[in-house]
Design goal:
Largest sheet: none
Structural class: mainly alpha
Oligomer: single chain
Helix content: over 70%
Order of helices and strands: HHHHHHHHHHHH
Distance between the termini: 19 Å
Radius of gyration: 24 Å
Mean pLDDT: 80
Strand content: under 5%
């Protein structure tokens, strides 16, 4: 198990290094205007001296090496347009709590709604809950998320007398963005849990248990649901990525001062160092999610063996 974890950790580190390098090189190909405020009014000599001071005149691999050294010291650079001269890490630490709270709340809601829906769909094949769940999954999957996000913001706020914009002093202003962000994961969890439960229900041990007179309720909860839920762990990383992608739009839509809205803002301002730092952070979150998903799958699924079998090549 330890060998497997170290192997996956090493692969994740290599992947992260590659992603950081690619992002860094791509950002360096962007116009230098993104590193200056009021670029048109600056003297060319000042621009040249500033680029030299920032190390942007060094060879690209020298710049990359220096950037990795900065990362190891927790330095993501400074903002050049969003907040001129402010450390990027300080800005992110101010914004991150909003995104973390929103993301964790939406994933908790998705689990609370998606898991029971998937179980109900599996237990009532071709009946009401199965048809309802299938319709919901098809709708969420087929319709662009921006359409129902805007619909929820416009009409749900009116029907339930909820704020359309985030207000720090009003906790109810979190309801609509959390619900909107959870919808995609609700459909995702319900779809896969139904599939795995149906597969388990067709296995021989279930038929044998029914033949021995085990009640359907006990069979579903004690065996079928438990065995079907284990493979769901591998989809947690995808849920994290789905939540990250949704937060970029949701936070902008509801004016939530989090990381998603910050990314949209700095892209519009062409603050290259800020864009680079946030994209790298999102990449780190995604890779950590994949790593945790693999490790949890190995720990909780007894069918996975880490020992080399006798006679294996």
């Amino acid at each position: 198990m330890l060998k497997y974890c170290l192997k996956r950790l090493g692969a994740s580190v290599i992947t992260l290094v590659i992603i950081i390098s690619v992002v860094f090189i791509l950002v360096r190909q962007m116009p230098i205007e993104g590193y200056f405020d009021n670029f048109d009014k600056l003297d060319p000599a000042v621009i040249e001296a500033t680029l030299q001071k920032m190390g942007l005149k060094d060879p690209i691999f020298v710049q990359l090496k220096n950037f990795f050294v900065q990362l190891l010291h927790g330095d993501l650079g400074t903002s050049v347009r969003y907040r001129v001269g402010a450390p990027i890490m300080d800005i992110i630490l101010q914004k991150a709590p909003y995104s973390i709270r929103l993301g964790l709340s939406s994933m908790a809601l998705a689990l609370a709604l998606g898991i029971p829906l998937g179980a109900a769909m599996a237990r009532s094949k071709s009946k009401f809950w199965d048809k309802f769940g299938t319709l919901f999954i098809v709708f969420v999957t087929a319709v662009p998320s921006a359409v129902y996000h805007i619909f929820i913001q416009m009409y749900a706020s009116e029907w339930f007398d909820l704020s359309m914009i985030y207000r720090q002093e009003d906790i109810t202003s979190w309801i609509l963005p959390v619900f909107s962000m959870a919808l995609g994961n609700v459909a995702y969890y319900a779809m896969w849990l139904r599939r795995y439960m149906v597969d388990e229900m067709n296995r021989d041990y279930v038929r044998l248990a029914r033949a021995k007179g085990v009640s359907n309720k006990k069979l579903m909860m004690t065996h079928v649901f438990r065995n079907a839920f284990v493979p769901m762990i591998q989809y947690i990383p995808s849920s994290i990525l789905y939540t990250i992608g949704g937060s970029i739009y949701i936070e902008s839509l509801y004016s939530i001062p989090g990381m998603g809205g910050l990314l949209v803002d700095v892209i519009g301002r062409q603050d290259n160092p800020m864009v680079q730092a946030i994209v790298i952070m999102y990449s780190c979150i995604g890779i950590i999610g994949l790593l945790l998903g693999d490790i949890m799958m190995g720990v909780l699924d007894p069918r996975i063996s880490f020992a080399k079998k006798e006679g294996a090549r």
